[in-house]
Amino acid sequence: xxxxxxxxxxxxxxxxxxxxxxxxxxxxxxxxxxxxxxxxxxxxxxxxxxxxxxxxxxxxxxxxxxxxxxxxxxxxxxxxxxxxxxxxxxxxxxxxxxxxxxxxxxxxxxxxxxxxxxxxxxxxxxxxxxxxxxxxxxxxxxxxxxxxxxxxxxxxxxxxxxxxxxxxxxxxxxxxxxxxxxxxxxxxxxxxxxxxxxxxxxxxxxxxxxxxxxxxxxxxxxxxxxxxxxxxxxxxxxxxxxxxxxxxxxxxxxxxxxxxxxxxxxxxxxxxxxxxxxxxxxxxxxxxxxxxxxxxxxxxxxxxxxxxxxxxxxxxxxxxxxxxxxxxxxxxxxxxxxxxxxxxxxxxxxxxxxxxxxxxxxxxxxxxxxxxxxxxxxxxxxxxxxxxxxxxxxxxxxxxxxxxxxxxxxxxxxxxxxxx
Amino acid sequence: xxxxxxxxxxxxxxxxxxxxxxxxxxxxxxxxxxxxxxxxxxxxxxxxxxxxxxxxxxxxxxxxxxxxxxxxxxxxxxxxxxxxxxxxxxxxxxxxxxxxxxxxxxxxxxxxxxxxxxxxxxxxxxxxxxxxxxxxxxxxxxxxxxxxxx
Lengths: 420, 150
What we know:
The complex is a heterodimer. Chain A is of the alpha/beta class.
């Protein structure tokens, strides 16, 4: 018996059991149009595990009070829960200090914050901001607004027909006038993973700060902002299995200390007189007004959930979903894949010959399959590929090969409907 | 339970595939643009009035099958009609598209346009079917602003 006890298990427990994980997500147990829901719109928003829902409920049921204000016990508890979530976020992004984590509404607000505060101090007439051809509108429009205001120039690094950033062109567009580079870690409409560390190295060599839009990267695993070397990194809680209306702006201590406040109000001040106001240190300086406390606490629970996963196994599972979906959809003669970068997250954009993406979306919806159709807030990407819109299936770790099969069957139905 | 075959009736699929009056007019007297920027449907409608009668009508644009088929069916339905008759047709189609699913419909006067009735089961697609009709009304009323149904 001694030997048996020390022998390896005959059947090792799988490091990642997708069926077990799916049971953690109540919405995945529901139906759509009378069929089991096949949720493939994770790049738009992700579903929430029980633990996040329960944690948010517990906050409101037992801990709700305003933070950083009350001297009573309940406020102490709420403040502790809020700051505990900040520490969890620090760990997830591997920031050096929790003071480098600012709670915001989401990536859009984080980018607007940096565009405004950085732009108003660091951008002069003739200075340049460099973005890429695959950015989400939220990483284009805030820069257009601030560049117009400051007389700065917005430059756009091009991509190739696979949706890969042209690094030679990117390097050529960098120069002494480039004050900031803003780039998606992962493209939401193409799935391309950009070489962030290389982008940071080239940009810093020219003295430019780098903001990375991590909205589509964080759902695919913990991020190491220090290894990437970024100045700013942004994430949205709802895309990483947390609540809506909460997100993170990471900024290095040096960068955040140099930035002026974004909004004025309570909680962001040190002293206020009618003559002069002094500001709190980061991150409080950027958190004017009562924050989304429940959202932050819920995001903390989402991070706890994600930290409990075996990411080597999860990444292998997501790679399998991507290659399986790419192979099966790509094998359909009427389907054209849009975005075929060598280095991709589990996002598959496609068009169906002769059928508008919205008609594809409506037909697959009848089979219980939820995908995104449209321009995905990346109209310049659609223009580049010469399509008005695409259909997009975006996978999370809780998706399965069976989900891909359901999508492929539904897409085949599109062809039958339009052949009628 | 919604039924796809109600939405994508053969006549819709056929008009999307081979739209009627997809053309630019030589002598338009009225025109209007319609666009639903969130979904990307675009239509340009041109009308040639002879007195009060629609002597010719053409559309150009791109978008989903519902918007394109609706525009194609529209051009066939209002050709030769007076502006008052076309406005009445707009009211009937609009009433049909926005009526609650399951309520009785009088489609006797609508002819081929009755094929659009299935759209009312798909609330998010009503704006696609109605865009060409709002654009027509804008053209007849010489509205300067582009039309949207989003």
